[in-house]
């Protein structure tokens, strides 16, 4: 009997057990094109597409089954004190892009865009690896390598659907020079695992700019909201933004007839229990702890001013130098904050990922479900929090069932949005 190939092992241990994060790493590093993702608007799962040459990179780089944070932190972030919520942080700021257009175009302050433009103009990078809008299908994104200011600016905004961005790593073999990298935690986990395994290209990668992430959604969430807004055909959509306009932004779509419809981003969040990727619910990394620079919503400033602000965490020497140099050059505005202030703005999300995720892992494991493993110890948990998680975990399972999604599709637009926002406010208050 022949030994299993790495691709067979990947599918057996990760994909077929429901542990795939949809980061796209396996597709991006396979030299034989033995893996592909053919349905980005569906399950967005890897599929076999050719013969495996047994290089093993897909297994080495996959973050689905296990991530060793302490080992990777030591190799790529540093040896400093690791905060239990935020990870290793050299300095923390509230920030926004100084260019008003870049600030408005961003999801929360435009800092990621402004940093990349600064690096490109200073010739510290030759381009960026990022997730941007698809050229011919504006309703979805794709992993890309861009080398112009226009390309970087066009990639602004969050896209709340499964995003196998690391498929773009395949195109890095055609490049030389240095490229910034902008991704979600699972993307960065895959990148760091690859680097730790010795994966290299002629092009260098850095700095790594990590975006905060609570969870990601199947594209069906977007499709369901579009239908509620009266758009039945994706092919009619000419522009789609998940956070258009003033903070917190609106989910806004325009069709080929010039008809525009929108709902608040906070109302779009009502799709989360129905369409979240369940692997995201066992991820313990909110703030992108393995990046050089982490960026998330600066809730306190944004709620007060209704303008976009970002939390910026500089984790490495390169990250700190980039942030300070960009500020000195007038590309971004920065205000120093404490780690406590940074954590307090996302208390509910930390409760979901630093407490709830560990409880869900134990709970789902007891139910016979496959779960990932980490080299982090679960924090002490009160009995009341463990009991509450029974409700939360059950809610995700029930809502994401066929029956649950069917009910959601029949509800009027915004029917659950007010309740969702009310519960979120209570959650934020009680988790501080």
UniProtKB/TrEMBL annotation:
Its cofactor is FAD. Keywords: Iron, Iron-sulfur, Metal-binding, Oxidoreductase. GO terms for molecular function: iron-sulfur cluster binding; metal ion binding; oxidoreductase activity, acting on CH or CH2 groups, with an iron-sulfur protein as acceptor. Residues 11-40, 42-72 form the 4Fe-4S ferredoxin-type domain. The keyword Iron applies. PANTHER family: 7-HYDROXYMETHYL CHLOROPHYLL A REDUCTASE, CHLOROPLASTIC (PTHR31332), FORMATE DEHYDROGENASE SUBUNIT BETA (PTHR31332:SF6). This is 4Fe-4S dicluster domain-containing protein.
């Amino acid at each position: 009997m022949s030994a299993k190939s790495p691709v067979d092992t990947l599918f057996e241990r990760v994909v077929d057990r429901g542990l795939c994060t949809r980061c796209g790493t396996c597709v991006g590093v396979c030299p034989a094109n033995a893996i592909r993702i053919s349905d980005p608007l569906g399950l967005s799962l890897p599929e076999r597409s050719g013969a495996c040459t047994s290089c093993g990179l897909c297994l080495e780089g996959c973050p689905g089954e296990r991530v060793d944070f302490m080992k990777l932190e030591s190799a790529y972030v540093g040896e400093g004190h690791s905060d239990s919520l935020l990870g290793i942080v050299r300095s923390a700021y509230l920030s926004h892009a100084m260019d008003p257009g870049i600030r408005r175009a961003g999801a929360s302050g435009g800092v990621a865009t402004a940093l990349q433009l600064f690096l490109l103009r200073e010739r510290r990078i030759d381009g960026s690896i990022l997730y941007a809008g698809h050229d011919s299908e504006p309703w979805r994104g794709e992993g890309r390598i861009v080398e112009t200011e226009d390309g970087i600016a066009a990639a602004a905004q969050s896209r709340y659907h499964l995003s196998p961005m690391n498929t773009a790593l395949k195109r890095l073999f055609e490049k030389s020079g240095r490229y910034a990298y902008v991704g979600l935690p699972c993307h960065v986990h895959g990148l760091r695992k690859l680097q730790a395994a010795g994966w290299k290209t002629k092009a260098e990668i850095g700095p790594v700019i990590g975006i905060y992430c609570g969870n990601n959604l199947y594209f069906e969430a977007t499709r369901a909201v579009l239908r509620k807004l009266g758009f039945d055909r994706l092919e009619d959509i000419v522009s789609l933004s998940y956070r258009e306009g003033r903070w917190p932004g609106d989910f806004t779509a325009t069709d080929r007839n010039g008809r525009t419809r929108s709902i608040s981003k906070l109302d779009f969040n009502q799709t989360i229990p129905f369409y979240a990727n369940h692997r995201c619910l066992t991820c313990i990394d909110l703030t992108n702890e393995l990046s050089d620079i982490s960026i998330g919503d600066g809730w306190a400033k944004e709620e007060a001013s209704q303008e976009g602000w970002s939390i910026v965490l500089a984790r490495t020497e390169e990250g700190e130098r980039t942030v300070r140099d960009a500020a000195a050059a007038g590309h971004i505005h920065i205000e120093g904050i404490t780690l406590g202030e940074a954590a307090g703005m996302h208390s509910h999300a930390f409760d979901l990922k630093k407490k709830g995720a560990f409880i869900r892992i134990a709970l789902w494991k007891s139910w016979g479900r496959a779960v990932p493993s980490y080299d982090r110890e679960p924090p002490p948990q009160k009995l009341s929090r463990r009991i509450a998680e029974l409700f939360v975990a059950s809610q995700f399972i029930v809502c994401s069932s066929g029956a649950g999604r069917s009910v959601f599709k029949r509800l009027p637009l915004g029917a659950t949005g007010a309740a969702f926002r009310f519960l979120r406010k209570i959650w934020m208050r009680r988790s501080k």
